[in-house]
C-alpha cells in the first residue's frame, strides 16, 4: 500500500479552489526513476486519483496546490511570503491512502474539471 501526502485544509479554505497537482514517486529507495507530476486537477479529483493509484502499489503521491501566478513579480512576492513565514514543524506522519475515500473521477469528469479550472484562471 502506498502513501498519500497532502495539506490539511480547514473547511472553506480558498486554497481548495486552486488547481492541484499530484507528484508520484517511489517509496522504495532502490527503485531509480524520476517522479512524475500530473495535473492540474480540482482538489477532490486530485485526492481521489492519487488514492486510486497508490492504494495497491508502493508509491508515494504528494497532492499539492498549484499557484497560478502571472508574472515574475507575483512569483517573487510569493517567494518572499514563503521566506518570511514562521517555520512549521514537519512532525507529522504521512497518511495512508485508505484514509481518503471515494472513487476516482472518470476521464470525462477530469476534463470537465479542467474546463472549470480554465474558467477560474481566465476570469
What report would you give on this structure?
There is one protein chain. This protein has 123 residues and is α+β, with helices and mostly antiparallel strands. It has one domain (3-85, 92-116). It has 3 helices and 5 strands. It has helices at 43-54, 72-84, 107-122, and strands at residues 3-6, 20-26, 36-41, 59-65, 95-96. Strands 3-2-4-1-5 form a 5-stranded mixed beta sheet. The longest helix has 16 residues, at 107-122. The model has no long low-confidence stretch (mean pLDDT 85).
**Proportion of helical residues:** 25-40%
Weakly predicted, low-confidence segments: none
Report how far the terminal alpha carbons are from each other.
40 Å
Number of helices: 3
Mean pLDDT: 85
Strand order of the largest sheet: 3-2-4-1-5
| Shape call | globular
**Structural category:** alpha+beta
Sheet with most strands: 5 strands, mixed
Rg, rounded, reads 16 Å
Count of structural domains: 1
The H-and-E topology, N to C, reads as EEEHEHEH
- The total of beta strands comes to 5
Fraction in beta strands: 15-25%
Task: Write the SSE topology.
Elements: E1 3-6, E2 20-26, E3 36-41, H1 43-54, E4 59-65, H2 72-84, E5 95-96, H3 107-122
Parallel strand pairs: 1-4
Antiparallel strand pairs: 1-5, 2-3, 2-4
What is the structure about, briefly put?
The chain is 33% helix and 21% strand. With 123 residues, the chain is of the alpha+beta class.
List keywords for this structure.
123 residues; alpha+beta; five-stranded mixed beta sheet; 3 helices; 33% helix; globular
